[in-house]
Amino acid sequence: MATTNDVIALTGIRKVFQTDEVETHALSEVHLSIARGEYVSISGPSGCGKTTLLSILGLLDTASAGRYVLNGHDVAGLGAAQRARIRNAEIGFIFQAFNLIGDLTVQENVELPLTYRGGIGAAERRERVLESLERVGMAHRMRHYPAQLSGGQQQRVAVARALVGRPAILLADEPTGNLDSRNGEAVMALLEELHRGGATLCMVTHDPRYAELAQRKVRLFDGRVVDEETFDRLRHEDERRLDALIGRRVEAGA
């Protein structure tokens, strides 16, 4: 049940993908809440439903069943236009691939989400852009283009773009996936700094080292949220089945 302090509250979320012959249950009865000011990581093996869950959280996709309340808005039954409006106002995205536009400057990339909102004049947009770039240490690169930046710098600009709209929550999708270890650690330190400053964060990652840095860890396995003990048991069972399969194939080929 959602509380007034919850930015996100999911109740009984299911997602089913259907083709002519196959019905795939990507998410099964997911219950999840994220409180204001919390830092949550969602992790699990490939195919466990992380991307599907993030798409639903980010209003990029809809659930097949269940209730989703985002910062007081019941969004489960909204149409595409309403979802887009709420997404722009309430959610800041940080993507693995940065998704910066190459022929726009850093300043223009960060300002872009604000141009889709009514009631924000040019002076206020410039002020917000500068504030966001200063928070990530990239204000001195405002007039540069993405190609003139390193991968780590591009991700910092992407974080600034996520911050500029002053969203209720930041959703980070594998934010270190395209970075080397040094730049990855720098981006994780930036996320921790933003959390200490009061930001609400939800990060999807396959890397257990980074998942452990979050205030709360959520584990997904076969489309279900599971506790740590269950997650470890299921993972070890999967590994044993895989080892047995490999062993049988080796024996058959001998």
Describe this entry's structure for a reader.
By secondary structure, this protein is of the alpha/beta class. It is built from eight helices and ten strands. The protein has helices at 50-57, 80-90, 106-115, 122-135, 151-163, 181-196, 208-211, 228-253; strands at 6-18, 23-35, 39-43, 65-70, 73-74, 91-94, 169-173, 201-204, 216-221, 224-226. A six-stranded mixed beta sheet has the order 6-7-8-3-9-10, with helices on both faces. Strands 2-1-4-5 form a four-stranded antiparallel beta sheet, covered by helices on one side. A hairpin with a 4-residue loop joins β1 and β2 (23-35). The longest helix has 26 residues, at 228-253. It starts with 5 loop residues before the first strand and ends with a helix.
SSE topology sketch:
Blueprint: E1 6-18, E2 23-35, E3 39-43, H1 50-57, E4 65-70, E5 73-74, H2 80-90, E6 91-94, H3 106-115, H4 122-135, H5 151-163, E7 169-173, H6 181-196, E8 201-204, H7 208-211, E9 216-221, E10 224-226, H8 228-253
